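User: Teach me something about this protein's shape.
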Amino acid sequence: MNKVLIPLALLALTGATSLAQNKQEKRVENAGEVIKEILDVPDNVPQSLLDKAKCVIVLPSVVKFAIGFGGDYGRGVMTCRKGEDFNGPWGAPTMMALEGGSFGFQLGGQATDFVLLVMNEGGANGILAGKVKLGADAAAAAGPKGRDAAAASDVTLRAEILSYSRSRGLFAGVSLEGSTLRPDNGANKSLYGKEVPAKDIVLKEVVPSPASAKLLLATLNTKSPKNISGK
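Assistant: First, the predicted structure itself:
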């Protein structure tokens, strides 16, 4: 009996592992589609800010599931420029989770894509190290659009994280203060097939980029191949 049960258990475990990996691969693919669609519109994210960003976080199709009570939850990816100073080409993604209060949805149940620009090393290292509360642990602001970047306030320019949302085709800067960002270590294990910390993925390049990240990285390396922050 046990000789039959053991192979069946292993088969079930293998199947569950494969399903979990496919789920994360789909999230990475969706993030690539979102960032391409957004960056293909010139008046969305200002080129000058994208070129200064150390990392980009993409959270596709975040849904508000508790109308009037917050409880929003989104999962996506974070990719950073390689190298100690975050000045190289865009590298392997780490899975991320966004949690917290209301994200300013116009309609309950409405799916919204979020794109966050991480503007300096402090912000990037903080997020990679663990849970970060936006507005408290990391200075965050709604990102300016297109030509508005030139008129951005000092608060915006000093922010470690600039955030944007896209819902029903409308793209705008959005404040995510009060919500938290954290590495999704369980999703990383599913995606890469082993436990690997977010910091090691980004800073030590211990795993190669998955095939599912091809569009995401190709888009960013085409749209912003070089960091111009000077830091």
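Now, about its shape. Residues 2-223 form one domain. Residues 2-39 form the longest helix (38 residues). If you'd like, I can walk through any region in more detail.
User: That's plenty for now, thanks!
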